[in-house]
Amino acid sequence: MSLSRAAIVDQLKEIVGADRVITDETVLK
Q: Model-level pTM?
């Protein structure tokens, strides 16, 4: 099963917190 990027980002928010995820999303874009 392949997760959508949105689902992966949502999981990352739970794991590492929103602050880091915001940075990761900027890099992915």
A: 0.38
Q: What is the pLDDT of residues 1-29, one digit of tens each?
A: 577 888 887 887 787 766 665 666 667 65
- Where b means 16+ CB within 10 Å and e means fewer, 1-29 reads eeeeeeeeeeeebeeeeeeebeeeeeeee
3-state secondary structure the chain: CCCCHHHHHHHHHHHHCHHHHHHHHHHHC
CA distance 27 to 16: 16
